[in-house]
Amino acid sequence: MARRHHGEGTIRQRPDGRWEARVHLDNGRRRSYFGKTAAEVSKALLNARKAREDGLLVPGARLTVGAYLGDWLAASKPQLRPRTYARYEQYVRLHVLPELGGVRLAKLQPEHLERLYAAKLDAGCSALTVRHLHAVLSVALKRAVRLGLVARNVAAIARPPAVPHRDVQTLTLAQVKALLQAARGERLEALFRLAVETGMRQGELLGLRWAYVHLDEGFL
201: helix, coil or strand? Predict the structure, then answer.
């Protein structure tokens, strides 16, 4: 016999002994969840109802990685800075969807991610870029676990590539003096002097505007 579960959805035991929970979707369709116990399918039903009430994707066996990541981006956009959202969207669109977009989320394994990382390295991406991709997937799949869409975050198991250590070559005091001497009177003298005296990064130096310079107060 089927029975109501908190007023929405039904749970019943099938003739083969398995338990089935059904939830009705907003589009008129319904989704079923199967398990060995009533408690198992009851939990799946509660997760599905909560996702529907929150306006999120209702978990299902056919939910793909691409569909989930699209929903994750849409749900995360209001909480992210525009540049952060743009970076996340770019990683998903350019790197994940072409390779894993059609994989069912419930079937996603750490091996899928490790093969993706290896393919990106072979295609010329740097190890640092691939690690950033791994970080994006980790954040996205952590939410999937919280919503009950998957049982585990496979990105927490997959191993991203190591970033090779690079020794940074710095100028000696004598070299700094020689650099400033050579730049004296040149158009970019102030840029070189600002670099060696403040330690600003190249992007910060090139992005500097007069509006950021406060000569009277002595800071920028």
Answer: coil
